[in-house]
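INTERNAL AUDIT FORM
Audit reference: QA-55
Scope: verify that the stored structure record matches its stored sequence.
Auditor: D.O.
Record contents follow.
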Amino acid sequence: MRVCIMNKLMNKLMVTIRESVFFVFLTLCIYHSSAFSQVTFTDVAETANVNKSSPGLGAAWADFNNDGYLDLYVSNYGATNILYKNNGDGTFADVSGDAGVDDDDNGAGIAWGDCDNDGYLDLYVVNDVGAGYGAENLLYRNNGDGTFTDIAETAGVTSVGYGLCVAWADYDADGLLDFYLTNNAHTIFCYGQSNKLYRNKGGNVFQDVTESAGVNEQGNGMGVSWCDYDNDGDQDLLVINFASPYLGSPEDNPSVLYRNNGDGTFTDVSSIAGISHLDGGHSGIWGDYDNDGDMDLFITNNSTTISQSPPISTSGENVLYRNNNDGTFSDVTETAGLDERATSIEATWVDYDNDGDLDLHVVNGGIQRDESSNLYQNNGDGTFIDVASIAGIQNTGNGEGATWGDYDNDGDMDFYAVNYRETNRLYRNYGNDNHWITIKTTGTSDNRAGIGARVVITTDSGSQMREVDGGSGFCSQDSLWVHFGLGSDESINTLKITWPNGTIQTFTDLETNQTIEIAEE
């Protein structure tokens, strides 16, 4: 009897051991698979010398001196703006004073673009004047020698108002960059100007064509972005309004999608398209997250209450609109797993893990709250999962914005996080074994930076599409260099660029893991 009991106990123990070994083996396999694909980030702001603490609002990567490395401009509220020159060794030098771009008039939105087509990126800086204490916006012309000259007055683009965001685009396809500027008009904060559309006439002179173009928006302007959402070859315009009931009726201040008519005018198609957004919008970003060949839209909402008398309240959630490729959009926020309520300010589409689809980074917090940001990994099936904690980028500190770019030229996307109440952070991406390619576009008959150009690549795994973005989101701008993650694909079958003027160039059989510059022919 005792032997029988012992045999049963031994058999049970062996089963338990086998189950435990299998569980450990399975866990290791899952961990190994996750570790292979998962990417982590490390904050290197201090060692890189970009950790100055100021109330930050915006940031933008750009290679202002054409040395092949991304430099960084940061706008600060109530402190001096900073231009960091990339030393090429992982560190940066503050050259703001020497370059002549050390403005201190409540910097807000910033955007790089070569407005005079001389091969050097120029910079527009929006000054948020608060309660009406006037400060002019700035247009810094790049002199090509490491210095800049403010030409805003002679160019006719000073535009004093409660300004926030700016974005470049060649909306009339004449080869010159135009830009749109958002202002908070007729709010309890400031009796500001309406938003502005400035058409580039050449010779560093711009013309205010806001009314004649039909984009005389007088809402509580926040974010602005351009893209060809209807695939007809011209740049359409999205304006995000902060539609709090305390800043005017929400019904009177919806976000607006303007369709480019191709003749210098625009038509409001928001209702027809199904994106009449009526809440605390801050930014709108375009990206083809499902790789079906059209641009989808993500809008951030500031779900918060601002303590003042009377209090300002908004209760909206972020929204993901999937492009139906027929001029309309569908709200797929909930099914995509992006319906988390937060004080969201800024967002970016980016393939941070180089797996071939766009992921989503959302900056939360703003002036009022200290909230963690989100990094939503694209699962490839129309859904997303937040991996910010695993990736090590739960940035807190009243986040106001972020700019993504490969500052160390190692093939994966890094980002700079802008905080209002804490030190800004530079998150270096440590990457994985996935392949990639980066495209630098250079226009000839088109604008020199290639802003608005559409790039489509095709590999054995399928096709991906990007547009060279002249500014989007809230106060920040991502790198103008177009980045594609390629997963395990070791070559690119075709690469097609459609320039803003309609010219198409096609390249075949390209190697991966390289940065290439393509000039318009």
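Auditor finding: record pair retrieved intact. Residues 2-37 form the longest helix (36 residues).
Action required: none
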